[in-house]
Amino acid sequence: MRAVVQQGYGGTETWSVHDVPDPSPGNGEVLVEVRAAAIDRGTWHLMIGEPLLMRPFLGLRGLRQPVPGRDVAGVVVGVGPGVAGFAPGDEVYGSAPSGSLAERAVVSVKRLAHRPQTLTFEQSAAVPISGMTAIQAVRAGGVRAGQRVMVIGASGGVGTYLAQLAMSLGAEVTGVCSTSKIDLLSDLGVQRIVDYTRQDPTDLVGERFDVVLDIGGNRPLRDVRRLLTPAGTLVLIGGDEGGRVLGGLDRQLRAAALSLVSRQKLRGLVAAEKAADLEELARLADQGAYRPVVDRVFPLADAAKAMDHLAEGHARGKLVVVP
Ligand SMILES: NC(=O)c1ccc[n+]([C@@H]2O[C@H](COP(=O)([O-])OP(=O)(O)OC[C@H]3O[C@@H](n4cnc5c(N)ncnc54)[C@H](OP(=O)(O)O)[C@@H]3O)[C@@H](O)[C@H]2O)c1
């Protein structure tokens, strides 16, 4: 099959398209013919091999598993031993640690579900990693109707889901993004938008939020806490300015420690990949609670261009790659 193969760590010069052997499904796994894959910041972190803290687990000189990409939507074409609930011909979506920027991918049933019926394959592929992160962040924040919620980084892969899921629960959402993405948030129905290139969101004088979901900018904790009500909740999800070694983990650890002595709840999120969340995201999509924002669709041969587009900060929502 054709697949993107990564050699070493670095920029997209480490990616090239090759013929490689088909993966074969093991116990509890299925083989999926990929109809669409998507890329996300996690794939970018794996490409550059940062935060460096991760390298002993990933491979010191390069990825142990060289096909990048995790998000996948496609059709089951093979079933390994011990698989129940999936059969050849099923249309599925999920996360493929064996790599999804390929014509075929192996996916564990622990990270797989039947795909949303009202979405295309391309839209479905845009959901898994960012959607699971968003739904888990909404739960970690305890978001509910009537609350004032700020999403810092609402225009990206995770943020576009977070903003929509919080609004579908009845929260009043303030979204933070850069100037060129204001129209995107406005189209999603985000009630209030702050352009971080013109105003730092932590300088909103007199504004207090019940929940702040922080995905971008890696601002100091003391600044982000100023935005919270006295018993408000902060969920730290990401931010790519957290340093090459720790990647912002230190901020998450400090938040957990501070939370012990504060009425405010300060949490870091480490999203888990779960079939149950994929099933819920499929249900929510089919009920119209959210729609994936697919910015552009690239052919497999241009997967590196897709990653450059993401890395340069141009992506509006999600980028999809089709084999
Ligand atoms: N905790 C977890 O388990 C988990 C899971 C998934 C992802 N993440 C992390 O979450 C982060 C975002 O992922 P993503 O896929 O959503 O990335 P993305 O698609 O690149 O989106 C990044 C978002 O951050 C915004 N942003 C950038 N600089 C900012 C600043 N200075 N102030 C405010 N907002 C800013 C961007 O706004 P503009 O585009 O308008 O500039 C965009 O909305 C990454 O660090 C990723 O590693 C964590």
Automatic annotation (TrEMBL):
Xref: InterPro entries: ADH-like_N, ER, GroES-like_sf, NAD(P)-bd_dom_sf, YIM1/Zinc_Alcohol_DH_Fams
One of the Pfam families matching this protein, by short name: ADH_zinc_N_2
Family matches, as SUPFAM superfamilies: GroES-like (SSF50129), NAD(P)-binding Rossmann-fold domains (SSF51735)
Domain Enoyl reductase (ER): from-to ranges: 10-321
Renumbered residue ranges of the record's region Disordered: 1-26
Record-linked Gene3D superfamilies: Medium-chain alcohol dehydrogenases, catalytic domain, NAD(P)-binding Rossmann-like Domain
Record PANTHER family: ALCOHOL DEHYDROGENASE RELATED (PTHR11695), RETICULON-4-INTERACTING PROTEIN 1, MITOCHONDRIAL (PTHR11695:SF294)
Name listed for the protein in its UniProt record: NAD(P)-dependent alcohol dehydrogenase
Organism of derivation: Nocardioides bigeumensis
Lineage: Bacteria, Bacillati, Actinomycetota, Actinomycetes, Propionibacteriales
